[in-house]
Write a structure and sequence with these properties.
The complex is a heterodimer of chains A (152) and B (173). By secondary structure, chain A is mostly beta strands. Chain A has one domain (22-150). Chain A is built from one helix and nine strands; from the N terminus they run βαββββββββ. In chain A, the strands form two sheets. Chain A has a five-stranded antiparallel beta sheet, with no helix packed on it. In chain A, strands 3-2-4 form a three-stranded antiparallel beta sheet, with helices on one face. The relative contact order of chain A is 0.17. Chain B has 173 residues and is mostly beta strands. Chain B folds into two domains: 29-79, no CATH class; 80-173, OB fold (Dihydrolipoamide Acetyltransferase, E2P). Helix content of chain B is 12%, strand content 34%. Chain B is built from three helices and nine strands; from the N terminus they run αβαββββββββα. Chain B has helices spanning 2-6, 32-42, 166-169; strands at 18-29, 47-51, 58-59, 75-79, 82-91, 104-111, 118-122, 135-140, 153-158. A five-stranded antiparallel beta sheet of chain B has the order 7-6-5-8-9, with no helix packed on it. A three-stranded antiparallel beta sheet of chain B has the order 3-2-4, with helices on one face. In chain B, a hairpin with a 6-residue loop joins β6 and β7. Chain B is globular. Residues 1-9 of chain B have low confidence and may be disordered. The chains are: A mainly beta (152), B mainly beta (173). The interface between A and B is large, with 43 and 38 residues.
Chain lengths: 152, 173
């Protein structure tokens, strides 16, 4: 019996979850598949993006869904210089809270800006969509946001 | 692309109602020095535990230190093949990936000389004949199939000895 070496073993856990998304998130995801971003009208008239089923402040049902964006403003961001395997992009990018035009809340997404020098708080960004046939009703139907000046 | 996003498309796939959110976790599990020793013992067909130098309790498998006294365990103990069922559970419900015919019994086995029990499969006995205090022994896989894992223990089976006195295992329930 050798004590020289500590054992190790590979162990994989897979949880193949499938979630029921409900009427509001479902509409948001359907909108993404259709190439538009929807928000919910909250009690005070402010638009919540991504939409919730209830106004997070009053608890009331939200009103109708309205289209916002597609452009918006970077409110805060964090540069990821070494992306991990599960990150949406395989090259350096920013996670950012983006307040879309017409929205009262900001949405978390990624900004493909090339370098941190190309991004600043307050910068205008626009979505870079996957092609219509690639979109499935997922937040990554928007591949990334890109600085507005760099948009095609 | 921004223009295309403005024009809603009719889609014959219907509204989105579900979202796949798979979680994939890759672990490289390292059991540490003490448990590595225990696992290597299993590859040789024996249970190796450790005794605490302060309270004298024997842990199998040992994590390398005594959870009560917080001191490193330095004394290795080879435990026997025999022990006592402290408590048990009869599995009657089939589930995906099940490899053992139901009903079967999983029991906490307190090896003789150990101060902690661990879970083992009980076989060679009907599920409704398994009971607390029953004396059991480990049945190992064939020598060429021994590995540094609990898979080296095929199962435990009753020895036929008289049941252990409740007093001997009441602190391990």
């Amino acid at each position: 019996m050798s004590d020289g070496e500590v054992l190790h073993a590979d162990h994989v856990l897979d949880y193949p979850y499938s979630r029921s998304v409900g009427p509001v998130i479902g509409a948001f995801l359907t909108g993404l598949r259709d190439g538009k971003i929807l928000g919910a009208t909250g009690a005070g008239g402010s638009v919540i993006v991504p939409p919730t089923e209830y106004d997070p402040i009053t608890g009331d049902d939200v009103g109708e869904l309205v289209e916002v964006g597609p452009g918006g403003v970077v409110e805060t961001w964090s540069w990821v210089s070494e992306p991990l395997r599960n990150h949406p992009l395989d090259h350096p990018f920013a996670f950012a809270l983006i307040r879309l035009d017409g929205a009262g809340t900001s949405m978390l997404h990624v900004v493909d800006a090339g370098a941190p020098e190309a991004l600043s708080t307050g910068a205008r960004v626009v979505p870079r969509w996957k092609s219509e046939t690639e979109r499935v009703g997922h937040v990554l139907d928007i591949e990334a946001f890109v600085p507005e000046t760099g948009a095609a | 692309m921004a223009d295309a996003s403005k024009s809603p498309q009719a889609d014959d796939r219907g509204p989105v109602t579900t979202l796949a959110t798979p979680i994939h976790l890759d672990y490289s599990f390292t059991p540490g020095i003490a448990q590595s020793r225990n696992l290597r013992g299993l590859a040789e067909g024996k249970f190796i535990g450790q005794r605490c130098s302060v309270c004298g309790k024997v842990y199998v498998p040992s994590r390398g230190s005594c959870p009560t006294d917080g001191v490193p365990c330095t004394e290795d103990i080879v435990l026997p093949n025999t022990g006592t069922i402290t408590t048990f559970c009869v599995v009657n419900v089939p589930f995906a990936g099940q490899s053992i015919e139901i009903p079967y019994t999983c029991a906490q086995v307190l090896l003789d000389g150990a101060n902690i029990s661990f879970m083992g499969l009980i076989q060679e006995v009907l599920a409704d004949e398994v009971h607390m205090g029953q004396r059991v022994e480990a049945v190992w896989v064939e020598p060429e199939d021994l590995t540094p894992s609990m898979a080296s223990v095929k199962y435990f089976r009753p020895t036929g000895e008289q049941d252990a006195e409740y007093e001997t295992y009441k602190d391990y329930l």
